[in-house]
Amino acid sequence: MRVLFIGGTGTISAAISKQALELGWELFLLNRGNRNSELDARGKPGKLIEIACDIRADSDEAIAAKVKAAMAQSAGSGDSPRFDAVADFIAFTREHVEKDWRIFKGLCAQYIFVSSASAYQKPPASYLITEGTPLANPYWEYSRNKIACEEYLMMQYRENGFPVTIVRPSHTYDERSVPLGVHGNNGSWQVVKRIADGKPVIIHGDGTSLWTMTHNSDFARGFIGLAGNIRAIGEAVHITSDESLSWNQIYAAIAAALGRPLKAAHISSEFLAQCGHYDFTGALIGDKANSLVFDNAKLKRLVPGFCASVRFDQGLRDTVGYVLSHPECQREDPEFDAWCDRVIAARERVIQEIQRP
User: Fold this and answer.
1) 40 and 170 co-located in one domain
2) At a CB cut-off of 8 Å and minimum separation 6, what does 303 contact?
3) pLDDT means over runs of 10, the chain (357 residues)
4) Residue 138: which domain range?
5) Is pTM beyond 0.70 here?
6) One domain for residues 125 and 203
């Protein structure tokens, strides 16, 4: 397989890049090269070719020229002049995918767009999500932009035969960050630290809504099975674990991995969204506050044998261990810490006032 990844070093894409190299694929990475060193191809059967450019800033002509030059340089006798698949992991607006179409419409047998499961209807009409669930999210611009991307690409598929496949990840995590419902601008470490320090942590709602966490290695296996798969052309497929957990269970697993008791402060999602400073309208009301369980039957039809194998509590223990042993993953966020204290204190004051005779 000869594939090109735009990005290729993020939470989701790094796992896919590593698996592609382990499978012996010829992998072209088109990015600015800031984190490519983490994808060490030495000792792996695959081949890594880096194309240094900025997909957003560089012109169509400059990017196309660099891509074709890289293909020609790596080509052996009889190699196809096209990629078996091109995947964009950093396309977030219609303008981004329009540019991809202009550059790659004649250079790939399959174009894979990484959308988002947050694009599914909010609030959902049913907790069980299939690919037939309507796309509509009035709460989150990020999700609406992903929907616009999907609509444009499917138009190109219908009208011009552009070989698009859409994949929709839900909450996917790796070893570098503990997955959470509520956190600040510096990621999840401050919440992990609060648990470790015995402080209460905010859980949105009453913590009983269902959520799905997917390890990036499991997502990668599903993605790899769709790449170069002619049955996936013109299809939209979500890739998630089959394991659904309540937010109370998720936070309890984090506390257990830290060996600390969980002190939960349940706060209404609507209240958090109105507290200001942090934008929880999209991330909570338009996403994590909803109970969602994903039906992966379509993925399993397209990729026979696929099964997400990393149980959340097991994957989480590895993540917590990694974060605790890597100081670069421990980004302090005193502003968010103080905000949590204020919100929890306000909740306690209201409870005491209501209970007063």
Assistant:
1) yes
2) 221, 222, 225, 226, 229
3) 94 95 95 79 86 94 95 70 95 98 96 98 95 97 98 98 98 96 96 98 97 98 98 98 98 98 97 88 96 97 97 97 97 97 94 87
4) 2-174+213-239
5) yes
6) no
